[in-house]
Amino acid sequence: MYKASVVGVDEERTTLEITVEEPRVREAVARAVRRVGARVSIPGFRKGKAPRAVLERFVSREAIYDEAIQDVAPEAYSAALSETGLRPLDEPEFDGLNDAELENGEPLVFKVKFTASPEVKLGDYSAIKLDREQREITDEDVDRALESLRQQRAEYVPTERATVETDDLITADIDGYVDGELADSFSAHDLEVIVGSGQLIPGLDEKIAGMNVDVPQEFVVNLPETSEGEETVDRDVTFRVSVRDIKAKQLPDLDDDFAKDIGGVDTLTGLRDRIMHSLRHRALDDAIMDLSRRALSSLATTSEVDIPRLLIDREADEELEGLKRRLADQGLTWEQYLTARGKSEDEIREELREAAPGSVKTKLVVDALAEKEGLMPTDDEVSMSVYRMGFDALGDDKARLRKLISDPDMRRAASEMLVNAKVMAFLGHSCDADPESARCDECEADAEAPTSDADELEAHDSEGEAQE
């Protein structure tokens, strides 16, 4: 019913010649007559019942042909892509349809131009064998992890001490004065802050340690300020600080009760063993990811692909928009950035464009490897990934989640994420010079992973985080 062949590639644009066999053309015209007739009111006839000769007195033959072409051309184009295995990167340009004669007993022949995703000649990744970092987890690592858990579960309790110390939780009133005038931007009342945590303006935090409750003090702090001319000047801010309350930091004891509360184990020794196991897996996961990145870099170097300018331009534009978003998150305007760099937006884009081929090639290699090794995610996997991402933001709002799961952009983003995760996992195993050393005898002996109320004690949480 449809035939397709590549008849030319000019300036990275592929031309497909598509043939629609005459019976399908005839069928499309007949369906077009019925659809057009159903929309037109003709005196003396019910809609859709007028003979074609009468219908053409009210609508042109060209209108009927346009209707038929809108029916048959997209279907033929889709079939042609399936037949040739080509994947378009942009919208197609159709040629030969405007003046097509559909009722001459001949097949319909037309051409389509588009930029096709390039063929990737993958390097021999089976030959890539890399050493994985073998990091030993020590008792000191476990000690640091235990101390981190203690710090996370610290409590702040009332104290009779009247002098502020580092790590105290204080309630304070702070008034900031610039050139003798009270500045709201430097002032706060009933402020709760942990002394020494870096939550306050640099230069003020360390001065509060040593203060006494209800004994106000003044401090002068020199702060940098950026003027409109982008020159940095200094200014002095006078802070009047009054500490109203102190709570002392209290850490839980490292004992069996702590182990039961944190890890669901009976003893501190059992908790240490569980942490050791978890840290070993994290170190292994980090080492595998590092090996995967090195393997991918090696594969990209040995692979061959002609990158279309379209993909390079898209990558540069995406990087440019990402840069603008990051600057906005930091409170900087695009104009400030351009002034600081002394460049125009076009010059920044050109810099990004020059750097784009490497990242574009890597993405193409990842996709090609995923297709070759059957690592492309299923529709269900994509839906579940979108669901997980949406659930974090929307909660259990089923209507909004269903809408999100159908969103093409969300599905595309989720698919790319899953492809990357699967390819990196594949390379991390297949390119490992000693994959046997990545096995965990403890896990194999106990099929069920350990459970705990503390996320940081999950032995295999990193894989779930990568998927999400």
> How many strand segments?
9
Helix content: 40-55%
| Count of spatially separate domains | 3
End-to-end separation in angstroms reads 44 Å
What's the total helix number?
Answer: 15
* C-alpha-based Rg, rounded: 34 Å
Describe this structure in words.
- This protein has 468 residues and is an alpha+beta fold.
- It has 3 domains: 2-114, Trigger factor ribosome-binding domain (Alpha-Beta Plaits); 155-250, Chitinase A, domain 3 (Roll); 258-304 and 373-467, no CATH class.
- It is built from 15 helices and 9 strands.
- Strands 5, 6, 7, 8 and 9 form a 5-stranded antiparallel β-sheet that branches. The protein has a 4-stranded antiparallel β-sheet with strand order 1-2-4-3.
- Strand 8 (217-226) and strand 9 (232-250) form a beta hairpin.
- Helix 11 (379-394) packs across helix 12 and helix 11 (379-394) packs across helix 13.
- It is elongated and about 100 Å long.
Q: Could you give a quick summary of the protein structure above?
A:
This protein is α+β, with helices and mostly antiparallel strands. The protein has 15 helices and nine strands. The chain is 48% helix and 18% strand.
Topology, pairings included?
Layout: E1 2-10, E2 13-20, H1 22-39, H2 52-58, H3 61-84, E3 93-95, E4 108-114, H4 139-152, E5 155-158, E6 169-178, E7 181-194, H5 205-208, E8 217-226, E9 232-250, H6 256-263, H7 268-302, H8 309-329, H9 334-341, H10 345-372, H11 379-394, H12 398-405, H13 408-430, H14 441-445, H15 461-467
Antiparallel strand pairs: 1-2, 2-4, 3-4, 5-9, 6-7, 6-9, 8-9
Helix pairs in contact: 1-3, 4-7, 6-7, 7-10, 7-13, 8-10, 10-13, 11-12, 11-13
